[in-house]
User: Which sequence fits this backbone?
């Protein structure tokens, strides 16, 4: 069942989880003898999975409609980095940059489709899973390219840390090897948190493609 719990009551302990980048943006929560009134159940007893999936759908749907803006700013910064590092004329770098640029445009149109559903009053449905899989796998690709452009400097990063390590640095932020290195590390987490890429593929396979459900271990 899905319940609303007062986080201020005794017995609840929130412990920050240190990520690979050194930042702590997530927590683990421990409940010791914590109670919750039955009036706090959302969506009825034994219906927690459906409520959680609906909630995640709206969360991912909102991201689908807005993330392309951040990733557009990021690819623009990466193009500037290629120029700064003197590799903008390398045909391999140019090809990879154009591939990433194209992926951001696809992401933008996916977001516009999701936003249209929101405006029409519809739940985004599996669009959220499609978007989550797409942007998280894309971000691994684009940050790997950034590290290749940095070369050896990416192994000993220095300079300004990213204003935020969540998904992308801020739009208009100046390039630094530290900023890109920390974003590169955090990009790996993006394929795990809020539903791993494997889970998203299962959702898409079952809800969009109509494939059989994944076999149970037993």
Assistant:
């Amino acid at each position: 069942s899905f319940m609303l719990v007062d986080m201020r009551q005794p017995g609840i302990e929130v412990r920050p989880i240190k990520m690979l980048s050194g930042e702590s943006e997530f927590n683990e929560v421990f409940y010791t003898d914590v109670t919750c009134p039955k009036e706090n159940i959302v969506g009825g007893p034994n219906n927690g999975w459906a409520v959680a999936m609906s909630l995640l759908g709206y969360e991912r749907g909102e991201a689908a409609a807005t993330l392309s803006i951040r990733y557009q700013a990021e690819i623009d910064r990466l193009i500037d980095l290629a120029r700064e590092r003197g590799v903008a004329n390398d045909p391999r770098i140019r090809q990879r940059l154009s591939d990433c640029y194209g992926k951001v445009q696809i992401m933008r149109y996916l977001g516009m489709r999701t936003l249209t559903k929101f405006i029409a009053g519809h739940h985004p449905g599996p669009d959220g899973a499609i978007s989550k899989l797409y942007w998280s796998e894309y971000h691994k690709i684009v940050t790997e390219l950034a590290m290749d452009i940095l070369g050896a400097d990416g192994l000993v990063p220095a300079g300004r840390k990213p204003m935020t390590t969540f998904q992308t640095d801020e739009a208009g932020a100046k390039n630094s090897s530290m900023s890109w290195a920390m974003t590169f590390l955090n990009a790996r987490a993006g394929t795990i948190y809020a539903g791993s890429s494997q889970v998203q593929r299962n959702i898409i396979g079952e809800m969009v493609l109509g494939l059989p459900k994944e076999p149970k271990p037993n």
